[in-house]
Amino acid sequence: MTAVQLPSSRPSFADINADLAAAWCHTPWRATDLSFDGEAYHGVYDVDLAADVSDRAPYRPVLHGSVLAQIVSYHTLASMLYAYANGDPVFAAFPKVGPAEVRRRMLVTSLQLSLHRQVSESRVPLRLTVDKYTDKWESHRMMFAAMSVDIAGGKHTAKLEGCFNFRDAVDV
């Protein structure tokens, strides 16, 4: 007798990415491969570097800091949505709400990019790790996270802080 595997009610990273990409504005990049290995949230982003080249700026295409900030913010949001939707124990006290409501309540509060070496490849890998959660749920119905991102194998790095804010009432 063969065991039948029931579909999981938890969304995959591909589901999270499809939902988030549909809500995101048009960009010269897109997430193509997102995963979680138990320690870090990985992503590969395809970037159209040539979209930034014109007659007025005929320089060699490279990944610019503004595009990098967009990608890092997107990857952070996608990673935290995945963690929340898939039952990461750190979110156990949070109300169970849909992806749009969770997105509304997540905020990147600071982003520090360290641009070390030029990136001219169109496939950009990212690796996000959560360094620390600060739980203020009991007193403020909020949680804070400090995160680190390795970009393109260490060519760039980022430090982020973010907030999950559930201070106002949530209709579940």
Protein described:
With 172 residues, the protein is α+β, with helices and mostly antiparallel strands. Helix content is 25%, strand content 34%. The chain has a 6-stranded antiparallel sheet with strand order 1-2-4-5-6-3. A hairpin with a 4-residue loop joins strand 5 (142-151) and strand 6. Helix 1 packs across helix 2. The model is unreliable at 1-7 (pLDDT under 50).
Short structural summary:
With 172 residues, the chain is an alpha+beta fold.
Give the CA-CA distance, first to last residue.
40 Å
- Averaged pLDDT: 86
Task: Briefly note the structural class of the backbone.
Answer: alpha+beta
The neighbouring-strand order within the major sheet is: 1-2-4-5-6-3
Tally the helices: what do you get? Answer: 4
Helix amount: 25-40%
Which ranges are low-confidence, i.e. pLDDT below 50, for 5 or more consecutive residues? Answer: 1-7
Which word captures the global form? globular
Radius of gyration, CA atoms, in whole angstroms: 18 Å
The beta-strand count equals 6
Order of helices and strands: HEEHHEEHEE
Major sheet: size, sense and barrel closure? 6 strands, antiparallel
Report the β-strand fraction as a percent range: 25-35%
What is the topology?
Elements: H1 13-23, E1 29-36, E2 41-47, H2 65-85, H3 99-105, E3 106-115, E4 123-136, H4 137-140, E5 142-151, E6 156-165
Antiparallel strand pairs: 1-2, 2-4, 3-6, 4-5, 5-6
Helix pairs in contact: 1-2
